[in-house]
Fold this sequence. Notes:
The protein is of the alpha/beta class and about 400 residues long. The chain folds into two domains: about 180 residues, no CATH class; about 110 residues, no CATH class. It has 16 helices and ten strands. Strands 3-2-1-7-8-9-10 form a seven-stranded parallel β-sheet, sandwiched between helices. Helix 6 runs antiparallel to helix 8. The longest helix is centred in the middle third of the chain and has 16 residues. It is globular, with a radius of gyration of 21 Å. The mean pLDDT is about 95.
Amino acid sequence: MTKVTISHAVTLPDPVKIARYLKAPELGPRILFFSGGTALRDLSRELVLYTHNSVHLITPFDSGGSSAKLRTTYNMLAVGDLRNRIMALADRTLQGNHEIYDLFAHRLPKDLSHEELLASLGAMIEGRDPLVASVPDPMRKIIRTHLKFFLQAMEGRDFDLRGASIGNLILAGGFFNYNRQIDPVIYLFSMLVKARGTVRPIINKDLTLVAEMADGTFLAGQHLLTGKEAGPITQPVKRVFLSESQQDTRPVEVEARRKVKDLIRSAELICYPMGSFYSSLAANLLPKGVGDAISKAQCPKVFVPNPAGDPEQFGLGLGESVRTLMSYLRASCVKPRPAETLLNFVMLDKKYPYQAPLGLKQIEAMGIGVIEVDLTSPENPPYFDERSVIENLLSMA
């Protein structure tokens, strides 16, 4: 068997390819995203119309909200973003999925006593709660069982149920039942809701994302970086790395699992998408071996920058953002890899100016092509139109 590399020109977007994908999404390309949070939620809902074979590698380092309570109490990875992506990819035509989505998105009230919240959780476990009762079997029985596993794990623990995400509690219950392994839980719920894609955490470990700032201070915890809970940062990020906990900020090195590397190597298109630059994108590239797997993937690698920037990119122009991305890609390689095997293109909307300085010549001098297409929504600038992003990306696969 002889392997050859063939280069060819493509049209963006390619109407013939797009029509083929829309007609048979089950045969669509394996496009892989490094992401986290909610930036790709709406895009993922549209993506299932084009392909059922997308791969979503998610950061498990969320340290805010309901995920933070679970992580602090049980020393587990964050499951909220995994839950969101599975439900975004769920088959919306499947009977019962709407009810499951409503249940997974439900949060317990913040103004009830602990005893009242326990009673609410008990009603769900017994199937008396309307949200649970509306879910058809066998999913209802599985949900009730997993909530029971979580209730058992609460014994002897001081867990605050106020504002808890029911979807997170269900996944956590499965995590405890499967000997603290998240992959079987993800597989089970992905099958039950017929998720049109693969969702995996980049690593299956309880670690903390730490940012060293320009003045040498440290922000330990993803929630301190995003600007959503602690206010936006007021100085540039010098670097991000992983540590054992928010209290112990010494850097630790972790290697990506073989199954994750296999998913990366088999991709037909790799996208570094819009979203939180450090806590979603760069955080996914911290485990060793990720860059090597990317380098070995025989497919285009495309960076789609945020059209309006994001709070984490304080002080970063577009050119510096690309340079920073390349530095994390290189650092995640066990051995040096050619730059052209890690990032090929930056896809921009030709109507939007992006963050200055643009540094387009700087980008091209790195051997990275700049592609200018229509990506933003005419009705809601400067935000992206999900279908435009999808159709331009998939035309490159």
